[in-house]
Amino acid sequence: MKPITWFPPMWAFACGAVATGAGVGERWLPVALGILLAGPLLCGTSQAVNDWFDRHVDAINEPDRVIPSGRMPGQWGLFVAIVMSVLSMAVASLLGSLVFIAALVGLALAWAYSAPPFRFKQNGWIGNGVVGLSYETLPWITAAAATLGQTPSALTIMTALLYGLGAHGILTLNDFKSIKGDRQMGVDTLPVLHGARNAARIACLVMATTQAGVILLLALAGLATGAALVGAVLALQMLCMIRFLRDPEGKAVWYSAVGVGLYVSGMMAAAVALGSLPLPSGTGV
């Protein structure tokens, strides 16, 4: 439940609201509640669930964490995850049926990612895909729909989907720090399945190609400035990728800080560009 983990879905929710161009400043309260829901509540819940069901793996990789170290004894970790889930649903209900349904989907994926019998995280291809779509695509589309009062445009949905797919690569970066424990516990992350160097190549390819897709979408929509800005941050990421690929295990944390910062900057640039388009007819704002 570290605040730094809340950032991706909070940022994605903000991007979804901005992408509508629907006067977010006038609707600051529901947007603020949505950001609170996406970050501290839903993302915090997913982290709590993950910490509980990963306590045996963490005992190998990170024994000083709160559950394996014994600082949170008994079943308190599970209790926190359940209470956070209930609180998330309560806040989501204040934001309307659409947000409530999206929150239920997010919670279902959060539990299925870490808990048996599904435990999607056992396979890096599936687990990282689930998290990427949950952290980026779902909050982006939910915020856009809630702000507009209707289904967002196909362009917005495609942009959100591409950034969610690109986040698969971001999640792979997080797996480099736990290769030893994951291998011992049978967690098939991409570094375990394909080796550190190949996993790094896959992560970079996924992040780069999805952003190239966003650039193409913006360009085809006549949003040349937005396409150029996303292209600029992608070019900077590719320079950073060269350093990362030389030493994937040693530079994964560094690239997570630098490269991911550029990635999410491109997200907001794309959202601002989308927000400059005329509002769709029938918008309920």
Automatic annotation (TrEMBL):
Keyword hit for Transmembrane: yes
Coiled coil: none
Membrane topology: Multi-pass membrane protein
Compartmental location: Membrane
One Gene Ontology molecular-function label: chlorophyll synthetase activity
NCBIfam families (alphabetical): chlor_syn_BchG, PRK07566.1
Enzyme Commission (EC) number: 2.5.1.62
Membrane-traversing stretches: 80-113, 125-148, 154-173, 202-221, 227-245, 252-277
Keyword Repressor listed: no
Keywords attached to this entry: Cell membrane, Chlorophyll biosynthesis, Membrane, Transferase, Transmembrane, Transmembrane helix
Pfam families per the UniProt record, alphabetical: UbiA (PF01040)
Protein name: Chlorophyll synthase
Domain of life: Bacteria
